[in-house]
Amino acid sequence: MTRPESLRLHDRGGGPLPSTAPVDPPDLGAAVTRSFADRHIGPDREELARILPVVGVGSLRELAEAALPTSILDDSDAALAGLPPAATEHEVLAELAAIANANTVATSMIGLGYYDTLTPPVLVRNLLENPAWYTAYTPYQPEISQGRLEALLNFQTMVSDLTGMEVANASMLDEATAAAEAMTLLRRAGRSRSSRLLVDADLFPQTRTVLNTRAEPLGIEIVTADLAGGELPDGDFFGVLVQTPGASGRIVDWTGVIAAAHERGAPVAVGADLLAATLLSTPGEQGADVCFGTTQRFGVPLGFGGPHAGYLAVRQAYARQLPGRLVGVSVDADGNTAYRLALQTREQHIRREKATSNICTAQVLLAIVAAMYASYHGADGLRDIARRVHGHAAAIAAGLDGAVVHRAFFDTVLAHVPGGAEAVVAKAKSRGINLRLVDADHVGIACDEATTGEHVAAVVESFGTASSVEAAAVGDDNGSAAIETRTSEFLTHPAFTAYHTETAMLRYLRRLADKDIALDRSMIPLGSCTMKLNATAEMEPITWPGFARMHPYAPVEDSPGLRKVVADLENWLCEITGYDAVSLQPNAGSQGEYAGLLAIRRYHLDRGDAHRDTCLIPSSAHGTNAASAAMVGMRVEVVRCRDNGDVDLDDLRAKIADHAERLACIMITYPSTHGVYEHEVAELCALVHEAGGQVYVDGANLNALVGLARPGHFGGDVSHLNLHKTFCIPHGGGGPGVGPVAVRAHLSRYLPGDPLAADSHAVSAAAYGSASILPITWAYIRMMGADGLRRATLTAIASANYLARRLDEYFPVLYTGDNGMVAHECILDLREITKRTGVTVDDVAKRLADYGFHAPTMSFPVAGTLMVEPTESENLAELDDFVEAMIAIRAEIDRVGAGEWPVEDNPLRGAPHTAACLVGEWEHPYGREIAVYPRGIAHARAKVWPPVRRIDGAYGDRNLVCSCPPLEAYAD
């Protein structure tokens, strides 16, 4: 197979593992300047001196030896030896500037679903570069996430309006994965029992590759045919998938094909370009059942492939089949409109191996950029942009005349130049323009928002034609009337008509951000999620043109800087994890899981072990583990956990014996999902290996291992790594994410490769996934160095144990490892408290908003508990403030338990409290001041006023509304 060229095997050495690790923090002494690690890590030396005695150890070295199994600890002198020394922020920014400048930012006219776009500066500064937006988390606490939920509702409305569909989700990972999700949706929604999917021949090639990757393990046969003529091949199909405009630029009215497919009982998915949809009749009007695509050209930079927000939209009948996130409209306790995630918001945890998708996130930040781009331009502005784009394409077609293959096109012209395609592309390249070399006889030319008349003239000249069309090319609507078949209105909601000035947009973005709690306002102590500092120096380079304006299929010689970032990260991540090879392609943790399991599956198939199809998964595992296993065609068998949370090795031995011949792998998380270091992990790995299986180590909790232990050394064969957790890529309100997959040498040939290469098994549309945000992780590792990374890990462990010790007498810590230690997170058990008082984890979570905090993770991995992860970035004052808030909440719970406040009417059940609720009638048995200043005004944090009260989730699911309210609702 072909893999990205910078993928290299890494020499990881060998030899016995030492039993101890010298991991004392460096002597900060009287240093005049602080290192970046000192800025990133919250507790300084004096604060650590107060934290460690509470934990019960005398040093970070002692902490490591007490918490981790000695059998897996690395010698700190050897661990991470391959990393470069730590650099300062300014040194790293200078290095990255040189790397970015090494890239050639040519005018991209390659197309294939990736287009240059002009992001309005008001969105760059106040959204894309604003920590109030990029440091937010997935809105599981909707009362303090109303801003981003409203923005996502706008996104869903935009997609629904432009596609003519009734329901759209809150984004997908990219266009190709959206198409793959559309494929499986058609299969489960259709009536046919056929295993065949009919796909039009003019689909984007990268989309076709990802479809093939997803289809094979599920037994789906993809049948490709040219459907533009309206004829369907013989035979049954469970669905039909087409695209407009196609890869060649061709526009097809799919009404006849869709009607013919429906006559055979096959639903149809259409890939639609949303900018073209402002001029063309919509897939919904043509009868489509599902729409998929990307919103990249709506203000989201090219970024060498990502991150971008894909989309998926369906008819109302399929709304409950939609994978991913779906924002819905509900009401709060006072009857006010409020937004929340609707339906099966964590389907993978509910249905596990029966889940319809393993996607548990979205591309929220990029979806919001796209939605705000549409809001800023409005319907008329988008139409003007579309007409200008088409006008430039029409001017090129006029200049090439007889060479044009398709006469119906929007932005992409396919030119036939027998034997001369390479020469034309080379001439255009000499003029600073990249065209698409389709084959020896054809060239593709794609226009976009950044195309100018000068570009048009240069392209025509590259074909050896005089540039007489230059003047015509400058026109805004050159020939566009000929393709304008859309008659329906779109984007009529106030969200898309009220913010066309910069003043209005600036204030709208600020108003929405003020409704949310992000890391710029408070600690977000979410277990399993690692909400740590996203440093400004890490974030600054991502909008530089050398990273942001690169097309993923630009000539290799244009991108040496980005390829250096990729190669460095591959090597550094191998060093950190102990694996031999890494692919950065997966653009989410779920995709990394899928890619890792797919590698295991293909390894067994190549060895003639097709019968090895059983995946063992502990009962404590994250739900995506089981969903991912099912997606690669594996059978899931659950292994029990002991009362202390560890995997039950006796049950593991029994399961291995039962499935020895069929055992493909085991999926474990380390440290465990319960937040402890299991001391038998090496034995667990050995048992599976002895039975011929592979060991998948979920890298979600790698923040508790970096610099201390490496899964590739203690038994793992493959792991995915969440760069948006351990390695500082921000969560962005629920995306972007990056989930590279790392493997031992024997699996390296099965890593995902370039989607345009032959025999590729790509899992994302671009070779390096969300490449433009990789400089974030590059900068983090480069600035921290080996010592800084190790200190970060140990401080995260120390802080988690500090919280566990201080809160255990108020909220019992459910699981601990040997020596009573937790890893980087701890689970607070409220089940007995709930049984005695009626106060639930939901009550505590909502009440924390009144105290100015985001809640920990609720009811995962154990229902009725809170999972707390402080990370290394929070200082002692913030940790103590959280502890005091939780102790105060426990005192309130005790007052409920004592009967002082009724179970149904107390500050916890009434939480969160808004400013508006204070000015109305007050009939509660507790005072207004207790409601909103529970520790008194003098001891309050900077007040966070939730914009809504407790949201009625059941109401929202019963009355599913997933787009902006109609105009009459505003009139009412």
TrEMBL record:
Its EC number is 1.4.4.2. Residues 792-913 form the Glycine dehydrogenase C-terminal domain. Residues 1-13 have a biased composition (Basic and acidic residues). CDD domains: GDC-P. Coiled coil: none annotated. Residues 38-463, 496-753 form the Glycine cleavage system P-protein N-terminal domain. Its cofactor is pyridoxal 5'-phosphate. It is an enzyme of class 1 (oxidoreductase). One of its GO terms (biological process) is glycine decarboxylation via glycine cleavage system. It catalyses: N(6)-[(R)-lipoyl]-L-lysyl-[glycine-cleavage complex H protein] + glycine + H(+) = N(6)-[(R)-S(8)-aminomethyldihydrolipoyl]-L-lysyl-[glycine-cleavage complex H protein] + CO2. GO terms for cellular component: cytosol; glycine cleavage complex. Residues 1-26 are annotated as: Disordered. The modification N6-(pyridoxal phosphate)lysine is found at K725. The glycine cleavage system catalyzes the degradation of glycine. The P protein binds the alpha-amino group of glycine through its pyridoxal phosphate cofactor; CO(2) is released and the remaining methylamine moiety is then transferred to the lipoamide cofactor of the H protein. Belongs to the GcvP family. HAMAP family: GcvP. This is Glycine dehydrogenase (decarboxylating). It comes from Nocardia bovistercoris. The gene is gcvP.
